[in-house]
Every structure is written in C-alpha cells, then in structure tokens.
Amino acid sequence: MKIIDKIILVLFSIVILIVSIVMVLLLSGIINFTTITSLYSKVVADGLVTNITLGVSVVCALLAIKAIFFGGSLAPKSGLTGEGILLENESGKLLISKDTIENLVSGVAKGFENTQNAVSKVIVDSDNTLRVFVTLMVLPNTVINELSVNLQKRIKEVVKNVTDLDIKSIDIKIKDITTSEENKED
Fold it and tell me: Which of these three, 70, 97, 116, is where a domain ends?
C-alpha cells in the first residue's frame, strides 16, 4: 500500500470515527441538536475558522475522489516479497518463489548438451526484474561463448513464457571443465 493511500485511510478513519461518536451522542441524548447548531454558528461566524474548515473539507473531498476512482487498478500488480514475487490481478494473488525460478533456470541449464552441475541463484530487483546467476561445469571441447549466448537466450525465453517475468541480466560462471560425463546431474 502506498503512503498516500495509508494517509487517506487514516484521515477517513478519523472522520468516520468523529461522525460516529457525534451520532451516538446525539441519538443517546447525551448532547442535543441545539449544541451542534450553536457550534456550527460559531464556526460560520469566524472567517478564519470557516476558511480552515472549508480547506480541510475540500482536501478530504479530493482525497475521497482519488481513493474512489484512482485507488484500485484493474491492471495486474506485482510486488516484491522476501520469498519471491507477488503477482496480483482482479482474480487473486500468485506468489512465485525464488526457489521456483532457480529450479526453472537450473533445469534449462542442465538440459543443454555439454553442461554439468548447473546451480542458479536469482536476485529480484526493486523494479521486479530478475538478475540470474548460473554456475556450471562444462565438458571438454565445449565452445563456451556459444554455449553461454544460447543458454542466456533460452533462460530468458523459458522464464518469460512460464512466469511472465523479465530478466535484467544472466551472468554465467564456468566453474570448471570436467573430464567425463559421469558427473552429469539429472
């Protein structure tokens, strides 16, 4: 929730509380209607108090219009949580954990020929874009530059198709060149 929305909520809660208390006091007979009308007469008689009251009323009206017409959006929303990315739309919420994205990236990397022991780490930026780090081992005679370009392209495609999230960067670290295919993880 944005700070302006919180301020609007607090202001309207205070206004509703005051109106509710006055209504309860009026209906229970603790104060009478003439007390309210005399208070109103004093407010109208003093020009400064009238202007302040008018200004506060206009601000409250504008905040109400903002909250009613511009407070909610039908477009999907997303937000960053400690566990992953929270996507919202009119039907509900979806939390995609960082572990899910990391497993997806590792699966793509392991699916490439000549790759072994692929491990990924995902960092979610404040603008809901992903930074992906992949560490892997490759077999001898692997053209590393070609592998990294193809791997980066494929990871971006798969993550975009599966999660509808954008990847800002994919950094690949070749940890080692292995001597056999026996260590290949599935």
Answer: 70
In the chain, which residues have pLDDT < 50? 73-78, 80, 186
Tell me which amino acid residue 52 is. Answer: I
**pLDDT tens across 45-84, in order?**
877 877 887 887 787 777 777 767 766 544 344 454 556 7
18 in the same domain as 100: no
Q: Find, among 110, 80, 74, 118, the residue nearest to 97 by Cα.
A: 80
What confidence score (pLDDT) does residue 85 get?
Answer: 82
Domain containing residue 19 = 3-70
Q: How distant is the alpha carbon of residue 142 from its chain centre?
A: 40
DSSP letter string, 37-52? HHHHHHHHHSHHHHHH
pLDDT of residue 137: 92
Q: Which residues, other chains included, contact 91 with Cβ-Cβ below 8 Å and sequence gap of 6+?
A: none
Question: For 56, which DSSP code?
Answer: H
Instruction: Provide the CATH number for the domain around residue 97.
Output: 3.30.70.1350
Q: Are residues 105 and 170 in the same domain?
A: yes
| Single-letter residue type at 127 | D
